[in-house]
From TrEMBL:
The family this protein is said to belong to: Belongs to the GtrA family.
A GO CC term attached to the entry: plasma membrane
Protein name (Swiss-Prot/TrEMBL): Polysaccharide synthesis protein GtrA
Protein localization: Membrane
A GO biological process held by the record: polysaccharide biosynthetic process
Transmembrane domains' residue ranges: 12-31, 37-57, 77-100, 106-126
Organism the protein comes from: Komagataeibacter swingsii
Principal subcellular localisation of the protein: membrane
Every GtrA/DPMS transmembrane domain range: 14-132
InterPro entries from the UniProt entry: GtrA_CellWall_Glycosyl, GtrA_DPMS_TM
Length: 174
């Protein structure tokens, strides 16, 4: 069995609770918008509404102790972009079920629940690794240092490349 930290398990359980609440917002939005814009548009719009609310609750509750080093708008955009895999798993499942049986079109909550389950694991791992990660997950990396010109340093002679010699020979007038 993989080594799971208690923090990761707690985060997963909280993420699941937020996901269940998200299913409620998702379902409520689909049922509210469906008479006005149709099932397809309502289903797509509902995902973004539910995902945005889920991001906010995950930011404030599930991952409140880590990963808030980004401006909230940037983090929200990262959440939506990062969870695009979950979006395709979720809505792919939903639309597939809509086309498989009329029962899912009649009761979209069934397809929405299946879609939420399909995308949950991907969304959790992506959110944890790319959106709500601690500030410093990597050790300090060594970078190149730019040193100002120092005339007292010895300069190696004959370091001109053959390309430089060719270019210079072409530029001579004569």
């Amino acid at each position: 069995m993989p080594n799971l930290s208690s923090q990761k398990i707690t985060q997963f359980l909280k993420f699941g609770v937020v996901g269940l609440l998200g299913l409620c917002w998702d379902t409520g939005t689909v049922y509210s918008l469906r008479p006005f814009v149709g099932l397809t548009i309502a289903t797509i719009a509902a995902y973004f509404i539910a995902a945005s609310i889920n991001w906010l609750i995950n930011r404030l509750w599930t991952f409140r102790n880590v990963g808030n080093q980004h401006h909230f708008v940037i983090q929200w955009l990262r959440f939506l972009a990062g969870n695009s895999l979950g979006f395709f798993l979720n809505r792919g499942c939903v639309f597939t079920l809509f086309h498989l049986s009329p029962i899912f079109k009649t009761y979209p909550v069934l397809a929405l629940a299946a879609g939420a389950a399909a995308g949950m694991m991907a969304n959790f791992h992506i959110s944890r690794k790319l959106v709500f990660h601690p500030e410093s997950t990597h050790p300090e990396r060594k970078t190149a240092e730019i040193v100002p010109f120092q005339p007292e340093r010895a300069v190696v002679q004959n370091t001109v490349s053959s390309r430089t010699a060719v270019v210079n020979s072409r530029s001579k007038l004569g």
